[in-house]
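Morning run. Coffee first, then this:
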Amino acid sequence: MPPFRLGLIGAGRMGRTHLRALAGSEAVAVTAIAEMSAEARAAVSAPGTRTHASVAAMLAAGALDGVLIAAPTDQHGAIITEVAAHGLPVLCEKPCGLTAEAARASARTAAAAGVPLQVAYWRRFVPGLRRLHERIAAGEFGVIHLVTCYQWDERPPPASFRAHSGGIAIDMGVHEFDQVRWLTGQDIGDLAVVASGRAPDGIADVDGAQVIAALSDGGCAFISLGRHYPAGDAVWAEVFGSGGSERCDVIDPAEGERAQLEALRRQAESFAEFAAGAACAGATAEDAVAALAAAEQVTAGIPAAVPS
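And here it is:
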């Protein structure tokens, strides 16, 4: 069968990461890119891929089977509305809006248009995490007492990005909140947060946030977020239960982005199956709402004045 024709919206950092991930896929091909910046369009121009200066122009050109949204978070809702009006399935980068209500609105928009909407929480496609998820579901760890999730970046992103990202809980934390819910099959309840490190002046953000959360079946979760890890970007998780424990290293600084690229490829290929009528194997809009609701709790718990 010919590859699934995917239109990419946004050729910034994450959009380019998706392009690297899909370069080796035989099932999915990025055949069109919409990007406002002429410089960014030139950087991703490639044979067989049409570039457009707007989403409208890309959609008008047609010949697409689905769309991947990798534009800034505060544009997710408007773009989902525009794409859904053309009847195309949507894979939206996390978090699918800056608030839980924004994600709910996008879910309603997609449902009204009758188009599949998947949210790109790529951790669900990491083999080690999938095995951990399956073992927890099978009861191999007994009663789950604690799940820990760590995400530490090598350095903070540019101020221009942070100003539109919603802050550390919405930009970074939603990955961990979705991961906790998916791994355990439990919802996140009340939580407490301790934050550290101020963002540049004029930006409502911090460089570190440590969160402890109650889970709906009696266990708890610890989520560690930080933006100063000189060894390189790192992500890992661990589960502690009455029947044992296990750690899963998701991103190892020594291996760079390899694990992420492989998971992004699997995610896009799974989305192509979802768009063709299969069950969604990734995160749904409802999952995005739950992750954002937890992130909003964290944001509300971060004091206005945090020591630098």
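The longest strand covers residues 188-198. Good start to the day.
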